[in-house]
Amino acid sequence: MKKHISLLAAAIMTAATVAAQIPSEYSVAPWHGFSQSAVTYSLDDLTSKQLPVAVPLFDKYGVKVSLNVVTTWVKPNEWPLLKAVLKNGHEVTSHTVHHKNMSMLSPEEFEMECRESQRIIKQYTGSECVTLVYPYCASGHKEISSKYYISARCCSKHIEPHTPADMFDISSVGVGLESDVNKAEEFNKWVDDGVSQKGWCTFLIHGIDDDGGYSPIESSELEKHLAYVTKNPDKFWVATFAQISKYIIERNALTIREMKKGNKITVIVGCKAQSPLTKFDEPITISRQLPQGCTTAKANAKNAKVSDGKITMDVVPGKTYKIACK
Ligand SMILES: [Zn+2]
Fold this sequence. Notes:
16 strands; alpha/beta; disordered N terminus; 326 residues; TIM Barrel; single chain; binds zinc ion; six-stranded parallel β-sheet; four-stranded antiparallel β-sheet
């Protein structure tokens, strides 16, 4: 009995932090599309087959990834390729300027690695860079990384819960020869664990096939795994590190107000989180119970659909939507 009470208390606390300003008729999806878990592929160091082999393979399955670049290691001919990859929806993440162990740096050096890598990526690609990947998974001065980034990745080999304890210490699971995650089934086991924990599984990838990179994986095994993940969108929401970081921040700070007039509902979506670093405009999936006497409805929102007496749709903070009941 006692156990039940504490579980219930935990559930109430979670609901209170997540849905503080959400009317009771609404639910906010823990992960986009009400998928049961989230998955990110995070590729370090721009090893030589990441752009020519891995990215086309991910593209074949419609999967967007995060490429974590050390700005002094990027060859001049690779910047235009990275720009094209960004345009295609992938992310270019900072893996610092020099790939030093950040935990050994003075605050001034640490800040330079954060600031300059971000500035150089923006200069060469024209796109914002809002997430950081620590070299050697050594984090150091988080109060400085948070001045420049919304989240940062380490590699403590666990599934992150639906709301991570620390956005500047997000776990990842290393794969390849130096790890025990090599075969498609071993990748699949991790994402299945992500589903049972309703959490976020990030894979840390270095070398691809025989490209000479650290801890290589076989692209054929990766492909078998991608076929599994992309066949199950109800289980897995696959997105970049930045997209998922933004989703977590937004959904936990989401506000919904509504106005009802006749058979029309106006839905006003806001977000209490603000940042000078980026706009919180990642689409969030919500659902609303249909009002009594309303059997079906339409909404001017992306992916709007009705099932089980609810309308589900994607909303962006700062925007207003209309639901029309029939
Ligand atoms: Zn690295």
